[in-house]
Amino acid sequence: MSLDLSDVKRIAHLARIEIDDAGAETALHQLSGILGLIEEMQAVNTDGIAPMSHSQDVTQRLREDVVSETNQRELFQSIAPAVENGLYLVPKVIE
Amino acid sequence: MINSSLKELAALLAGKKISSLELTREFLARIGRFNPKINAYVTLDEEKTLTQAHAADARIGRGEAGPLTGIPIAQKDIFCAKGWTTTCGSKMLENFVAPYDAHIIEQFDRAGAVNLGKTNMDEFAMGSSNETSYFGQVKNPWDKSRVPGGSSGGSAAAVAARMCAAATGTDTGGSIRQPASLCGLSGLKPTYGVCSRYGMIAFASSLDQAGPMAKSSEDLALMMNVMAGFDPRDSTSLQRDKEDYTRSLNKPLTGLRIGLPKEYFADGLDAGVAKVVEDAIAEYRKLGAETVEVSLPNTRLSIPVYYVLAPAEASSNLARFDGVRYGYRAPEYTDLLDMYCKTRAQGFGEEVKRRIMIGTYVLSAGYYDAYYLKAQKIRRLIAQDFTEAFKQCDVIMGPAAPGTAFKVGEKTADPVSMYLEDLYTIAVNLAGLPGMSIPAGFSNGLPVGLQIIGNYFDEARMLGVGHQYQQATDWHTRMPEGM
Questions:
Q1: Contacts of residue A90 in chain B, CB cutoff 8 Å?
Q2: What letter does residue B259 receive in the DSSP assignment?
Q3: B34-88 tens-digit pLDDT
Q4: Domain that holds residue B10
């Protein structure tokens, strides 16, 4: 699987990372090297092998549906880039 | 005193030969002296540190001390500590003051340990040399023109230069064991799920695991007694009975079966490192252990599998850094999308962006089965290799890293060459097994680590295997010159 410049720009957009042409060129070269490494996987026969996500194959723990956290809005918002009246400020999204 | 074991320090504190305040001041003085050259710490807060030391002295005075009460510990800057700047080595979190404590930090607080400061690391733990840190590279105390390894390079350098009694690290693909090897100290990555990930800034959640870094195996055991334990706030934390990790330290090695994977002694291993590792294994035979050749045929595949799974999970985990709730926000932007894109382009370093992009690509529509699912299937094959090997042996031994500490800048131009640093460590994370590295000697004046891999939950045995070697050898007591 080989990438081209437009792929790199599409990936950067999906990842929400601004990239200029020079950056995309460098990324193309490096991502291609990494994907070349990853391609080694395709030679392996994995028919009938179950995917593994946790070594102990544990199932998700459940808990009672009760309140476990206290309200710490002020503390949490004290480290936010921009807040007003208890709300996080972002550029206008609805006209 | 700076070379004393944790047990010796606890005895000095209990016997009132020294106070925690004095001990802490001694380490702070060493940090003041050596850190400007080594750059192991990124955040120090003398007032907070000394307040904890004072409280520890009071606790010791009341006769309520535990084994780590009053002991100064360095914390990797990946652990949120309430009121402490917690950067994870990134510009993105340069001004992030954690509003809560990680479980690991709580555990040390409960034990009465003293937080000496936060240690430097590769940005978001992505790196094997500490060169991706936004706060500058860490220098290897054994040779300042060389890297300390990574990502827990600050913690490794702090222990090696005796700028702390012990430290914490995290290991996603070798980030405790490889720097421990390159800096000449002992480091343990526990079985996945043994230490809580709560408050530990996430990189690849199915692989990340916290662990101790210290001078000796015995020190690691005492650290593990504090760090391990069930925590309901981490959905992958394992519910197990509390165990004493020191219980097998004095168990003789007679009859211990050591598996030597032939793939770990093949091409790609530096000859000097191979010699040191073979000498260490000869020492184990002298101490009564037997060796048997085993095979881990899928070792080579662990790198491609890792570079699908870890970036995929990272791309998802790091989506939270959007400039809205905390962390960096770009100063100028046109709209919301532009704010996200500029914030992330400016806030993340090159390696982090590279991995997010790889992860985004392998998870994008149409590629999931070919990459992520395929990698998860091979992951099971890699884990099965170990299951087979452990039918023939009790522990597996080999090198922790393919070479000794390399020069600063040597591998930064080619990411793939850097990724190969973790050839012997990554499979252990993929399988979820415990692994450790202990100092085994030197090659051209640089430390070499011996990796010990155990079966699931066999940390106590591994620590004993390390301790017995350290009773017979003195590599773990060596210190860099001029420190």
A1: 324, 336, 339
A2: E
A3: 999 999 999 999 999 999 999 999 999 999 999 999 999 999 999 999 999 999 9
A4: 6-256+393-477
